[in-house]
Specification:
Largest interface: A-B, 202 and 207 residues
Number of strands of chain A: 15
Oligomer: heterotetramer
Distance between the termini of chain A: 54 Å
CATH architecture of the largest domain in chain A: 3-Layer(aba) Sandwich
CATH topology of the largest domain in chain B: Aspartate Aminotransferase, domain 2
Distance between the termini of chain B: 12 Å
Largest sheet of chain A: 7 strands, mixed
CATH superfamily of the largest domain in chain B: Type I PLP-dependent aspartate aminotransferase-like (Major domain)
Bound molecules: pyridoxal-5'-phosphate
CATH class of the largest domain in chain A: Alpha Beta
CATH topology of the largest domain in chain A: Aspartate Aminotransferase, domain 2
Low-confidence stretches of chain B: none
Number of helices of chain A: 13
Helix content of chain A: 25-40%
Chain lengths: 454, 482, 454, 482
């Protein structure tokens, strides 16, 4: 019996100790009519050998592609050590560290994680992870609304990832929070500052993405200052890798953003079809009691030695129940552990070099693609590591054709930003070489030139 | 020692540096970072050694018995990890078009089908990223359902007093108010109290069954009738599905929506706190509201389904596909066990809990619900021991660490004083259970002979008892340099 | 600098402490003319990211094949847990356990390994691994010759793996040991008992393979008894997996074989292009002082608790130097660790079932192939999990053609056993399904029928 | 507790059982096994927990400083392991025809080229499976060379008194007799003694340089001349190549044949005792005798070369291709470091050793060769400490374990009394070295203040001092049931 250690003799001895005649009898408090027998849609079990073959055949069916899609999930080099350590049984198969003395390893790593993220964002406190970047943004919006106590309107630029905006809406809608979208400049790709001023009524918070979904760097100082001038809280939504190069939220404008959230995936999480990744939330000290989720603190043990523990739990659902800052319980602990190891291996120089490579490679890619007849770069703003290109015809069939050449050519913007026409969002991280870019460009050029009908 | 304290300015893991970057226009000065972040500067070996040694300071299923009630700490098959970490799965971009990911999508589709059958539900969405997000999705669907019928007044969620904290917190997250219903001395919902609570404002009731009291709510059909008759819907918190998987379908008990904790019932790793996965299954009337994306059939293959397929969806709960890699692990687990193996989970989880309960009773410990069968877990109360010796449930929990056992859940559910909620799970052997009984027996004896020994425990862990009060009073949440 | 932690400041401080002006100066005792500067054939270093890409591209170039080759290296299911645990840093990056107190983990696993192998072979003692099966056979021959003290002639059946015979010859030749080969019966494929009796002069030892290279089971009882009757030592050469089904060497004949050696690869070692695998050697207690290599013993510590340590080191090179039983020092420890975990996961029932599956699958394969017109099964003897088939034409081109269909169709015997004509050695382990066998057979049938010229 | 003691009859890891076997003719009764072997019957979790916990009871590079002289315990890059464990490499059958393994063969071929350049040799064979087998191959080639020239009398191998045990043992394995040559008080070979030893029976001389005394044999050219003039060949034991890699080519010193320990110099894992790899490189006159198989160019690709290419080969030393997977790891390592990185290995290994030597001298410890530079390692002698306090080198080694450091090599080389052979390697930081100096200083103080504390060490390891005498007197080498 897979994973069940019991022998027949043991089962008999155990039943005797219980005083039951059979295992069946242990279910006698369950009304008869609830006992189900038909589970026909579930196949019978297979040995590990067969499972591994099945799964590796499925994996191989999904092949190997040269990937130029970013759009919120980025292909980065992950040092081999990261997952060889993170999947060690002690980290992999532990629960949330409720018993501090039995979990100092996990707790210390999470404290180090919080420290790294706080320093990267230039803010004072950080939690031990949220589900992902999109839901973290929703939590930030709710935290800001709670902290403000009155206004329930939050401004969110349209230059924020469309799926993030969907997710925020889905999560905050039932609490009566109103999301107002801000337009972006069709020329620079950054949020139009005029859009801010046209926003009406009391505002709880304003979200500023850095970089935004188009890869463009936003005027975060101006947005933050405007936000504070209007008595609202400024929420930075950041790609944490970009923070190796760009000004951290804690330093935006005169006073700094109040909260920073983002998707942690660029730090050690494989693309893996969309998850698991992790969200993070950092904030000013004053907002710590609005923070959702686990927080690890450093303290001492009975002998006075440094020790770590979950803390400020009075914010959380298991203590505060209906009054908690969030319902989150299980978070993305292992991803935070992997991120910590990843960051320790990269260090400040590795992180900066990686970010610079991403910028340079995407710039090179955009230059090269814009040289293809009929293509042009869409936005003029300074960018991190994505670029929008206008194509002379519909994007989807082009991407499919590239797919047949084992190239993932970017993300089609036409559904979410119809006003941009045939627009393609591309990204070349540090994993891409000059040859990769040349291969992509050549394939695209050939496709656009050759098969006029595609 | 913190990794930062091992840091030396200028040190680096040389093999991790990418090649020197090519040209790019310099960033505008006002957007540029001025001070480098406080990241450690260490060699690759420094980092490997530091984190390897830290890992050794952590109890886990792979090293210890971990009978943490309500958390289902069972063996996490290593094959599931290997299968999900196939390079091609890891490399898959979530926005790559569906044709390029039929293997991945196939696994997810089949997992949807398996979960439908296990729960008896009509449709399943895999996207919620943990139990609590599944709960949120469920309550949001309930509200969307009432609203779609023009019944906007239904904003009350009823939960039993014993409910897990996420249930009331979810009610609030969903913009509902929470009403609590009592349980009786045998752990059953007080039906009279329930009848008095329901009404035109009732959106629904959230329930785990077996409950967090470790007993099966045998009056569940009546509970369902009361709520349904009042116009409310029933939400099944699947955190305890391990007790009845493959034996009882939540739909048959009258539930309209269910979430499963794959990181419990399906043995995906807990990872020191996550990632998990909390898929939701629904009865037909809630299907239009499921969170997206779903995986749908498309000819011989599969495709994503989104708001174009489900215009009434409550929406997206994550940027992409929830914790996709966790779903792969759960799929692997389901295939390894199959139909009969999944049913065996409930059988042996229940056998282990009832055996442990019987033996602990024999060892002189006091049960919270002595007249009931254990489900996959049960509660003992140490109130008498505390009154007699001053040794609390927390002290006993800490002393268990010295005996090489992770402590059970303590002080939850809140209504049982000095309680330990004990869940052995099906993957532990009789020998391990017997060892646990012996350990508790020893600790009880120690509490009488030398209470200070227990009150000052643990003695053999990497640190002694941690000062949690100081942690909360003087929060030190991030290192800021030496 | 990859893997070097030193900063410039540290290097300066260290040189100052030494009293040297530069690192160069530390090499001043090396004569100038020996300093080499030209290493032009070695490429400059690459980052881990580039290395991983290079290596995974090379790996993918070697593709995925449906494999029916056995011939001394077998494709078996290896539980995922085996290498996830064996590559944990503590096992993976430790040295030979010289300091027992610091290496109880490794030592206990190796003691368990010795125990498992001793029980499997039915002998009393076992060492902690040798390099591989072939060199283990050479060590056994040398041990037997030493133990015998006089005769230096050893009989080795031609039904022993040809590469093993090559290896034995290469290793024992310089010590004046003479290897005499014994013919096999062309009909049964087993060693001809008549061949034994025709052996001349004093004999130190006789090797009996079980199963032999053709997969055929040998008359080991008769060989062992004959050997003992002639005052020689009997060396069993076994596939350890077969021992789940067949009589262990310790029970061969009236007195049992004296030594058993073999290739441990079927226990947890991936095929991996030929290694690392591991050899094992078990023996009667009386021969323990002739045993080459490390041996772990169980003893107690100063507090009387059970403890483990390397023992009987007076046999070894670091103590006995020129008089040691062998020059072996580093062995295949990690492979023995993996094998131990593998065996613990399979247990007696898993091992027996695996062996039975291998036998049944190969039998099914041989039946199916022998049904192809022009093919026939070569030997009549009872077999474990390999089979020899006669083909109607040269084997090598057929194998190449099958390779193009991603099938590895077996091992061509014609070079090493020209007397068998166009003979092919095939194997289907427990990893092969009925569909796999059908696919192989269909491809082979098509090839033989269709392209008469190939 | 042994895994056997966790065993319960009838228990099994169910997911590991293959499907029920199909039909096969029953085995003849007399060939059949009658009693099942004594293998443990445990669940998958039992096994995972047992071996995970055992692993935690082991010092290793990933957890501890491990300055084991002559063993080069340096950081083993995790990427090399990941690269070699690509599923396609692991699945490759050694007898699959070369066309199906061009990726694998390409790595091996390039590794041959890299090793040729590093050693200055004309040809390399990768097949020997550890240093000792490389030595055997080398001496066997030397003998084959003399024999091929009709000079069968050359059967003496000269080794220095300080030589590693494998050198004399190899001489015997190769059917040679061993002659020992003295070293002087500065660790140099006594050239007069050498001149007296060589002659018409000299097959060759085996030498490490730097030697196991931790010093460079600066008279190596003269040594080579003496041996060559006598008609012998020179064998280079590459175990200490870490000291001069990328700086000095063994061929330039006059060596005719060399083996490398890839598990030392190329950082492939030691694995608790192996697997290693001991490739051999040779001067042109020995090339015809190399062990097979080699990897050869074939057009654009690669093929195996065997006795059909090298009819004079000494033969095959393993069934297939040595420790092929170890070779892949070494190739990965060589590519990560490259030409400059390999040279840096020698630089920093030497810097670390000389720094540590200087600091230990400052801390009052006594050097065995105080007038010499350290190479990548050096020797201290604790004779004075032992004479004064009764605390031996072994006691100090055990006490170091309590300080979180693996002990250096003790009592080797045999000619230095109470010696510690200390090799820090290039991957350790100044901080670690300083900690080690502090630990030895503390222990020296303890030896004077409380010798019993040191003599009864270790105190903090999973077991106390192990009774090795009893282990050898009453050998218990295998568990035989309870
Ligand atoms: C009964 C119950 N409900 C809900 C949850 C919440 O699940 P998650 O932690 O996955 O959000 C838990 C988890 O501890 C639980 O035990
Ligand atoms: C100097 C020296 N030569 C030879 C060897 C033997 O190498 P191996 O253990 O790989 O056989 C060693 C290993 O310890 C050594 O240190």
């Amino acid at each position: 019996m897979p994973f069940i250690p019991h022998t027949d003799a043991e089962v008999r001895a155990m039943l005797a100790a219980i005083g039951a005649a059979s295992i069946e009898e242990l279910f006698d408090e369950i009304p008869r009519e609830l006992h189900a027998e038909n589970f026909a849609a579930i196949p019978e079990g297979v040995p590990e050998m067969a499972l591994m073959r099945l799964m590796s055949e499925r994996a191989r069916a999904d092949g190997h592609y040269l990937n130029f899609i970013g759009a919120g999930a980025y292909e980065h080099h992950i040092p081999a050590a990261v997952w060889q350590i993170a999947t060690r049984g002690e980290f992999y198969s532990a629960y949330t560290p409720y018993q501090a003395e039995a979990s100092q390893g996990t707790l210390q790593v999470l404290y180090e994680f919080q420290s790294m993220m706080a320093s990267l964002t230039g803010l004072e406190v950080c939690n031990a992870s949220l589900y992902d970047g999109a839901s973290a943004l929703a939590e930030a919006v709710l935290a800001a609304v709670r902290a403000q106590g009155g206004a329930r309107r939050v401004l969110v630029p349209r230059s924020v990832h469309p799926f993030y905006r969907d997710c925020v809406r889905a999560i905050v809608r039932n609490q009566g929070v109103e999301i107002v979208e801000l337009e972006y400049s069709r020329e620079t790709g950054a949020t139009a500052l005029e859009a801010l001023s046209s926003a009406k009524g009391a505002i709880a918070a304003v979200v500023a993405p850095q970089p935004n979904f188009f890869g463009v760097l936003e005027p975060v100082d101006e947005i933050t200052d405007w936000t504070h001038a209007h008595g609202a809280l400024a929420i930075g939504l950041v790609n944490p890798l970009a923070l190796a190069l760009v000004k951290p939220p804690g330093e935006w404008g005169g006073a700094g953003a109040d909260i920073a959230v983002g998707e942690g995936q660029p730090f050690g999480a494989p693309l893996s079809g969309g998850g698991p990744y992790f969200g993070f939330m950092c904030a000013r000290q004053a907002l710590v009691r609005q923070m959702p989720g686990r927080i690890v603190g450093r303290t001492v043990d009975a002998a006075g030695s440094p020790a770590f523990t979950l803390t400020l739990q009075a914010r959380e659902q298991h203590i505060r129940r209906a009054k908690a800052t969030s319902n989150i319980c299980t978070n993305q602990g292992l991803m935070a552990i992997a991120a910590t190891i990843h960051l320790a291996l990269l260090g400040p120089s590795g992180l900066e070099r990686t970010a610079a490579c991403c910028r340079a490679n995407t710039a090179a890619l955009a230059r090269r693609l814009a040289a293809i007849p009929g293509l042009r770069r869409r936005f003029s703003g300074a960018a991190f590591h994505e670029a929008v290109l206008s194509l002379p015809r519909a994007v989807a069939p082009v991407l499919e054709a590239l797919g047949r050449e084992r190239i993932l050519g970017g993300f089609d913007l036409s559904r979410h930003y119809p006003e941009l026409g045939h627009a393609l969002l591309v990204c070349a991280t540090e994993t891409k070489t000059g040859d990769d870019i040349a291969r992509f460009a050549a394939a695209l050029e050939r496709l656009l030139a050759g098969e006029k009908s595609c | 020692m913190l990794i930062f304290e091992r840091s030396v300015p200028g040190r680096a893991s040389g093999a991790q540096l990418p090649p020197a970057p090519g040209d790019a226009a310099p960033l505008p000065e006002r957007l540029r970072r001025q001070r480098a972040p406080l990241l450690p500067e260490v060699s690759e070996m420094d980092a490997v050694r530091h984190y390897t040694r830290l890992s050794q300071m952590t109890f886990s299923i792979d090293t210890h018995f971990y009978p943490l009630g309500s958390c289902t700490m069972k063996y996490t098959p290593r094959a599931a990890n290997a299968a999900a970490m196939a390079p091609e799965f890891l490399a898959r971009h979530p926005l790559a078009h569906a044709e390029t990911g039929q293997g991945f999508l196939g696994c997810l589709f089949e997992l949807q089908e398996i979960l439908k059958d296990l729960t008896g539900m009509a449709a399943v969405s895999l996207s919620p990223m943990a139990g609590a997000q599944g709960e949120f999705a469920g309550v949001a669907m309930i509200r969307a359902y009432h609203r779609a019928r023009g019944d906007a007044a239904r904003t009350e969620i009823i939960v039993p007093d014993a409910a897990h904290g996420t249930n009331p917190a979810t009610a609030t997250m969903s913009g509902c108010s929470m009403r609590e219903v009592r349980t009786d001395r045998d752990g059953r919902i007080d039906l009279e109290a329930l009848r008095a609570l329901v009404g035109a404002r009732t959106a629904g009731l959230m329930l785990t069954n077996p409950s967090t009291l470790g007993v099966f709510e045998s009056g569940i059909k009546e509970v369902a009738r009361i709520v349904h008759d009042a116009g409310g819907l029933l939400y099944y918190d699947g955190a305890n599905l391990n007790a009845i998987i493959g034996r009882v379908k939540p739909r048959d008990m009258g539930f309209d929506v269910v979430h499963l904790n794959l990181h419990k019932t399906f043995a995906t790793p807990h990872g020191g706190g996550g990632p998990g996965a909390g898929p939701v299954g629904v009865a037909p009337r809630l299907a239009p509201f499921l969170p997206i994306p779903l995986v749908a059939r498309a000819g011989e293959g599969y495709r994503w389904a989104d708001e174009r397929d489900l215009p009434q969806t409550i929406g997206r709960l994550s940027a992409f596909m929830g914790n996709a890699g966790v779903l792969l692990r759960a799929y692997a687990y389901a295939r390894l066990l199959g139909r009969s193996g999944l049913r065996r989970v409930a059988d042996y989880a229940t056998l282990n809990a009832n055996y442990l309960m019987a033996e602990l009773l024999r060892a002189g410990l006091e049960l919270a619900y002595p007249r009931r069968r254990a489900s996959h877990e049960f509660i003992i109360t140490l109130k008498k021991l505390r009154d007699e010796t001053g040794v609390s449930a927390l002290d006993v929990a800490k002393r268990l660490l010295d005996k090489g056992v992770h402590a059970p859940t303590v002080y939850f559910p809140l209504l049982v004083p000095e309680c330990l909620l004990i869940e052995p799970t099906e993957t532990e052997s009789k020998q391990t259970l017997d060892h646990f009984v012996g350990a508790l027996r020893e600790i009880a004896a120690e509490a009488r002979a030398d209470p200070q020994l227990v009150k000052s425990a643990p003695h053999s862990t990497p640190v002694r008892r941690v000062d949690e009060v100081r942690a909360a009073r003087e929060p030190d949440l991030a290192w800021r340099g030496a």
